[in-house]
């Protein structure tokens, strides 16, 4: 049984006979996309974990792409009817959009078990454990024999428009050079499945021999990584023409470690 942002008003905090609960089926998975409090945030979706697997994409409250201005949202690519609905209940309706995308992307939407979204963003719950990560949506039931805990909260990020899945990586860059500069470092991944856009690893003071780490959500599954592109730039014209390089770049794939 898959719950697509089950309702909060009149249901949250009620007995299990009234609302969706893990006792309703052999396996219950839930996607929470609008779980901010109804008052004052007008969240439509239930907040607590109530299934065997509870997914909280983007933290489960505010979905990327739902903060577009009302005019652009109503005159949406999908037409005025869908745009109007999204304007009224965009976060709430993301749950079925993620689910429909998950049918196409069997390897997408990996959920990382974590106590909170903040810890997930900091990388504390990366990579997937030995037994792997469950997939949010259509293929969540592939994981039903591996469910251990009373409730499992799972976190992931999505894109702000179709196609929604992202593939998480940990990228560490150790710099080489002679002097520290101010600027930013970008990295792009190339692989058997395609290549990503540039993702920023760090910005600010860049010191040779220091290692900088970031968690990036790639917009495609690059497959086996064949090449990494490293770019750096300083923020202003520097007459000394400093040079920086990458001594090493380490990429860890969340999916298969």
From TrEMBL:
It is found in: Cell projection, Neuron projection; Secreted; Zymogen granule membrane. It is a peripheral membrane protein. InterPro entries: AB_hydrolase_fold, Lipase, PLAT/LH2_dom, PLAT/LH2_dom_sf, TAG_lipase. Coiled coil: none annotated. Its main location: other. The keyword Signal does not apply. Belongs to the AB hydrolase superfamily. Lipase family. This is Pancreatic lipase-related protein 2. The gene is Pnlip.
